[in-house]
Write a structure and sequence with these properties.
The structure holds two protein chains of two kinds. By secondary structure, chain A is an all-beta fold. Chain A has strands spanning 5-7, 10-13, 19-24, 31-37, 44-50, 53-57, 65-68, 75-79, 88-95, 104-105, 109-113. In chain B, strands 2, 4, 5, 9, 10 and 11 form a six-stranded mixed beta sheet that branches. A five-stranded antiparallel beta sheet of chain B has the order 1-3-8-7-6, with no helix packed on it.
């Protein structure tokens, strides 16, 4: 499968625990994005990388959230001290270049915080 | 007020019907617009781009009215496989693919 890959698909955790998600973009794509989607809502932008540089972060990304993309390949999104409000689908997307018609999304990681 | 607003539906239509979805956006600096399709528990996928001149792809037609800040999607001859959530998406000028999604409109096509 040469699409965007996310791991794990599902994560259940207890409030206060830390969680980390991984995203492997399409190999030739230099841009990588993280979005969050809650039930009944559209995806909301969290952050994006061009190669290894994190170029933009949403105000939705509180201090408990951190994202990295070492070496400009895969990316990780870590949430520290999870809260119930963090329960959502975390979607990763990648693109080569800019434009809303160039993004390819992964299947997402569904996070449930109990 | 949300930057991109849509009627969440659901729209329940019989197979073969024509259905139209509307969307309004508040950021006049938005440069590009798209319709994405999202199946239940799946990732969003690009359906089509939206141009001021209109854009048609088979049974799907998208229109943009910049003066009214309004976008539409028309689906003709609905199929059962069209059942999904349709997300209206704006890309503001000067952003590098920082898409702004609407809440989505759910379509259910029935026999």
């Amino acid at each position: 499968d040469t699409g965007v890959s996310q791991d794990p698909r599902h994560k259940i955790t207890k409030r206060g625990q830390n969680v980390t998600f991984r995203c492997d973009p399409i190999s030739e794509h230099n841009r990588l994005y993280w979005y969050r989607q809650t039930l009944g809502q559209g995806p909301e932008f969290l952050t994006y990388f061009q190669n290894e540089a994190q170029l933009e972060k949403s105000r939705l990304l509180s201090d408990r959230f951190s994202a990295e993309r070492p070496k400009g390949s895969f990316s990780t999104l870590e949430i520290q001290r999870t809260e119930q409000g963090d329960s959502a689908m975390y979607l990763c997307a990648s693109s080569f270049g800019t434009g809303g018609d160039k993004l390819f999304f992964g299947s997402g990681t569904q996070l449930s915080v109990l | 007020r949300k930057e991109v607003e849509q009627d969440p539906g659901p729209f329940n239509v019989p197979e073969g019907a024509t259905v139209a979805f509307n969307c309004t956006y508040s950021n006049s600096a938005s440069q590009s617009f798209f319709w994405y399709r999202q199946d239940c528990r799946k990732e969003p996928k690009l359906l089509m781009s939206v141009y001021s001149s209109g854009n048609e792809d088979g049974r799907f037609t998208a229109q943009l009215n910049r003066a009214s800040q309004y976008i539409s999607l028309l689906i003709r001859d609905s199929k059962l496989s069209d059942s999904a959530t349709y997300l209206c998406v704006a890309l503001p000028t000067g952003t590098a693919s920082k898409l702004t999604f609407g809440t989505g409109t759910r379509l259910q096509v029935t026999l």
